[in-house]
Amino acid sequence: MSKNLKVSGKLYYLYRVVAVLLFVILFLPAVNPAKVCGLINRSISLLTSGFSYGNLISNFGRAFKKEWVSESSLRLLNISSMLVCIGIIGCAAGACLSLGNNRCRRLGNIISLGGSALAAGFMFGIYNAYLQIAATSKPSKIEPAFPDSFYPILAILIVMLIVSVLELVLDERVEKGTKFYMESKYRLFLMFLPFILLAFVFSYLPLWGWRYAFFDYKSGDTLSRDNFVGFKWFVQLFRNKATTSDMIRVMKNTLAMSGLGLLTSWVPMAFAIFLSEVKSLRFRRFVQTFTTIPNFISWVLVFAIAFAIFSTDGFVSSFMMNIGAWDAGKNFLMSGDHVWIKMLLWGLWKGLGWSAIIYIAGISGIDQQLYEAATVDGAGRFQKMWHVTVPGLMSTYFVLLLMAIAGILSNGMDQYLVFENSTNTTDIMVLDLYVYKMGIVNGAIPLSTVVGMLKSIISVTLLFGANKVSKLIRGETII
Fold it and tell me: What is the pLDDT of residues 428-470, one digit of tens each?
């Protein structure tokens, strides 16, 4: 291998690290170079600034009416941010192509070169927009502020530009007739990469919000040393009698409803087994489709269906009054009796068909020779279901059970939010709904963040604990 190729190989590590860093910057509001004045929301990222003009100007309504700032300046900022984002995405695409052969790498270098040049050029468009906004007649109203992240991001883009040029010079030339090629392991990695990115953006990036638990924060405030309170909210969660009482009640509801869900977790498997025994393919498909559709109906529409059936003027009350069984209608939704059972039944109705899909797929993977052998041994239909189908699905069932145990504190919020009313709020308040009401409705963001942190830590602990128990009992694990 020549010296140039060795240098090129080492440069590719820097090339990929810089590309990943630039891609992450797209999603981090703290380093958004488009935040050039105080009226721009501190919570929006560079990606949002570029692709959502409405979010970018959401606080500029009065400024436009008073003509403190020109809308053309914000348009320039929006378009420049969009093109910077496109350039960075091009750099990321080039980094992905660098995993292939020399033809893939060369194309990737060209794309990265163009992307970094585009992004670096339109960083000056953002700078020009800042100068226009800073020239306003009412700077105290607009609060122009040059972003600290501007020059570091520009420097990173220039590094990407230089590295791309060097790679084009140092990398080996592409022979005529060479086709694009990438090893299978890299192709599989790139196929899996979007899911990694989605998990990072929606599952790991929000963990940055845990810092609110250590500040005396109110909506609209900034985090600083002045409002840093350390573990104050953690201590208050356990020392404040009212909060402790609420937490005990909420945890009781959460664990009860999750426990009922665990006790009935076998129902989708049983449903799938019996459905697979139906001989009529047309009828089987109809039942499977009919029971799967409710999963795609929002809980708001489910409540509307429940209201039409069980309210005072609903179907049940109207029918009972028409036959003379009742003198007046009854509203079953306003009753606080048996709330846990009601929520369980609604959840089963909505998710039964969807939850059974994985078991139906598992049944189709069971070796048919096992059924033939059971038939030869004289086993009937129910015996084959019990001795062949059920054992064949147990591994799938236990994996799903372990995941359900890990998420025992996560009941979701939508169902309980729409069904909650003044008569059942004591029994229907689960942890997710409690955190939502505490943080969004009541504004106790730090305390709700503490509760959310503890919930995440407990869930992870339960997952590893259940995994350990599974290894001891079954000899198999999911982690």
Answer: 999 888 888 888 888 788 888 888 888 888 888 888 887 787 7
Angle at the Cα of 121 (from 120 to 122), degrees rounded to 5? 95
SS (H, E, C) the chain: CCHHHHHHHHHHHHHHHHHHHHHHHCCCHHHCCCCCECCCCCCCCHHHHHHCHHHHCCCCHHHHHCCCCCHHHHHHHHHHHHHHHHHHHHHHHHHHHCCCCHHHHHHHHHHHHHHHHHHHHHHHHHHHHHHHHHCCCCHHHHCECCCCCHHHHHHHHHHHHHHHHHHHHHCCCCCCCCCCCCCHHHHHHHHHHHHHHHHHHHHHHHHHHHHHHHECCCCCCCCCHHHECCCHHHHHHHHCHHHHHHHHHHHHHHHHHHHHHHHCCCHHHHHHHHHHCCCCHHHHHHHHHHHHHHHHCCHHHHHHHHHHHHCCCCHHHHHHHHCCCCCCCCCHHHCCCCHHHHHHHHHHHHHHHHHHHHHHHHHHCCCHHHHHHHHHCCCCHHHHHHHHHHHHHHHHHHHHHHHHHHCCCCCCCHHHHHHCCCCCHHHHCCHHHHHHHHHHHCCCHHHHHHHHHHHHHHHHHHHHHHHHHHHHHHCCCCC
- The pair phi, psi for residue 452, each rounded to 5°, is -65, -40
Amino acid at the residue 304: A
Read off the pTM: 0.74
- The burial of 417, by beta-carbon neighbours within 10 Å (0-12 exposed, 13-18 middle, 19 or more buried), is given as middle
Share of the chain above pLDDT 90, in %: 28
pLDDT in tens, 325-362: 888 878 888 887 888 999 999 999 999 999 999 999 98
If pLDDT is split at 50, 70 and 90, which confidence band does 407 have?
Answer: confident
- Tokens 């949002």 sit at which residue? 48
Q: How confident is the model at residue 478 (pLDDT cuts 50, 70, 90)?
A: low
